Amino acid sequence: MVKQIVRDPMFLQQKSEPATEADKQVVQDLIDTLNANRERCVGMAANMIGVKKQIIVVAVGPFNVPMINPVITKKRGKYETEEGCLSLDGLRPCTRYKEIEVEYLDQDFQPQSGKYTGFTAQIIQHEIQHFSGELI
Q1: CA 38, 41, 47 angle in degrees (round to 5)?
Q2: What is the mean pLDDT of residues 91-99?
C-alpha cells in the first residue's frame, strides 16, 4: 500500500528499532511507496512512511532491493557531498564512502551480503542513516 511521506523532523529524529518477521508488510509498503515516488526518489527508509523499523528499499536500476536490519561492515573512499531527501526540503552536506559492504536480511528474512559502489552505495548509506535519527 502506498503510504504518505512523513515530513515531521521530530518523528524523523527518533531512532529505529530492528525489524522482525512481523514487519513483512512494512517491506511491501516501502516498495509500493518508492514505486509511487520513483520519479523523485531512489531509496526509502521505513521511518519515511511512519514506521520506526530498520528497513530500507533501494532502487538499483529497474529493481527494488529491500534490506532488513542492514549493517555496513566495511567502507572505503571517504568523500564529502550534498544530498536531498524526500522527507526534507533542500540539500544538506554529508560524508559518504565510495565503496561499502553490507550485511542484511532480504524480503524473506534470509541473510544476505553485498558490495556496493558509487551512487548505489551512497543511497544505501543515506537510508541507513535514517535509523539513527540523524537528519542529513
Answers
A1: 115
A2: 96
- Residue pair 124/58 in contact by the 8 Å Cβ criterion: yes
Catalytic residue, candidates 82, 101, 127, 134: 127
Give the mean model confidence (pLDDT) for residues 9-34.
96
- In this predicted structure, the answer to whether residue 136 has a pLDDT above a threshold of 80 is no
Whole-structure pTM value: 0.95
CA distances from 7 to 12, 104, 109 (A): 8, 26, 29
Question: Is 127 marked active-site?
Answer: yes
**CATH number of the domain at 9-132, out of 3.40.50.920, 3.30.70.2190, 3.90.45.10, 1.10.150.120?**
3.90.45.10
In which residue are the cell numbers 543511497 written?
123
